[in-house]
Amino acid sequence: MEERYPTSLSGQLRRQATPYFVGSLLLAGQQSLMFARDWLFKLGVDAAVTERHPEAVRAALLAGGAVVLAAGMRVLSRVLIFNGGRAAEYELRAELLRKLHQLGTSFSQKLSTGDILSRSTNDLTQVRLLLGFGILNVVNTLFALVSALSLMIGISGKLTLAALAPAPVLMLVTRWFSRQMFLRTRDNQESLGQLSGRVQASLAGVRVVRALSLEASEERAFRQISEVYLEKSLSLARLRGMMFPIMGAVASAGAVIVFWYGGSLVLERQISHGDFIAFSTGLARLIWPLMALGFVASIVQRGRASYARLQEVFEAVPQVQDGTAPAPSRVEGALEVRGLSYRIQERTVLDEVSFQVPAGTSLAIVGRTGSGKSTLAALLPRLLPTPPGAVFLDGHDISTLPLRALRRAVGYAQQDAFLFSTTVARNIGFALDDPDSDASLQRIREAAAEAQILAELDGLPEGLDTVVGERGVQLSGGQRQRVALARAFLGEPPILVLDDPLSAVDARTEAAILEAIERQAQRRTILLITHRVAAAARCDSVLVLEQGRVAEHGTHDELLTRGGLYAALAEEQRRERELADLRSAP
Asked: Which of 89, 151, 262, 493 has a CA between 20 and 30 Å from the CA of residue 543?
């Protein structure tokens, strides 16, 4: 069973507690050593002023040792805490991918592909910085404040109050910048998602753009979105550009006060020369954390904004919920549909559809375009939210079965064949653990031969090792369809649902594929979604859909003799073939 990781920030903080805790201890040790270094500076300077040279040399050597040891602790603390942030990023990315696999089509309709990619890359990077760099600086700032203030107050409480006079102003400025940083970062990330989505859509449809000569229009649309993203980015950059100088000026005001007021205290002999040097080095350690508050606030707010976008994905409810019943130990392949109805928004796609397919038999589902055939095909393996009590596999309600077990039992080859941008062999053997092994390659070739595509694939420049390109762009529509069919054959599920596998092939290839489907039907249950009567005639029975309802059900011969919708479709297709033959005749 795959390990699950927490998706909340608090959960990740608890999970990475060990590197964070040890890293924090190292930071505490480093700041303690820096306190010791500053105190040794005090002792060394006072000894030098009073010409106690051995004490001055000893203090200098001890201070040097403290600096070296503190540097080592500093490096180790960063390794641990940064690695904690990267581990959290890795686990959140794994959970994000798992969640995206669970979510259905309704979620992908809300967010574009580019927006999802932006959340999977840029937003996760910002969260990693929050859980690594951000946490390190928050912890280090706290320890630095304690260490430096302890030293400064011990030297002079009055001088410490004077040095911290700008602190209230710094806190107000930091709060304003933090709020603005959060809002502008969120807007910037959303704009980047829109830009990524536009680029992805334009590249995916590049052939359509070229065919319609719409390059100029696409460039204008891209330029408009790009200008919005540019403005959002510049707005964020202007804010960050103002933040550091303003906060640095406010924080540095304390140093000016120290040199003016602290110098007067030295002249009045209220503090020693060593006190002044130690106080100055302590203040220098304090100024950076105070200045870093703005930078840390920027990291925190950007991380919060990015995590809020990731949280939309993590908290989204999948359309299809996993079943809790135990998976059946053996699947015979009997399928029954009882009163299945399905709506998309306000439109009824399927209305009280019922039929039975005994194990080891074949059923053709026929109908005109828009009759609900493809929707029915997608509901059988629960790629859409199948209503409970409507579809049964060997008597088990599929809505109660684990999705993984159901989809291994009900193979599905969709009409719009999707291929990954990899080799033909890996596309066919996608479900295999090791598609590159010799045994897997033999199975891949057998599946390709069964789908009547092996000879064509062997004729490609690199045979089965040919990379098909994005969505299989290097192959024709018929070749893509048959590669997807071979992939479905290779899985050898007890039930195989084929959604119009003949829509993009010629008559000769169609006949060969139908023979392959007949051979498959001897070993498993077959549901063939098709609009071709010639293909439906090879199945044991035929179900005719019309506007989402079952119009007819019976064998091919029975439906022809009834003279109903199926017979009308057969007659239409016979006339179309005759007309095509006349046109092709010399």
From this structure: 493
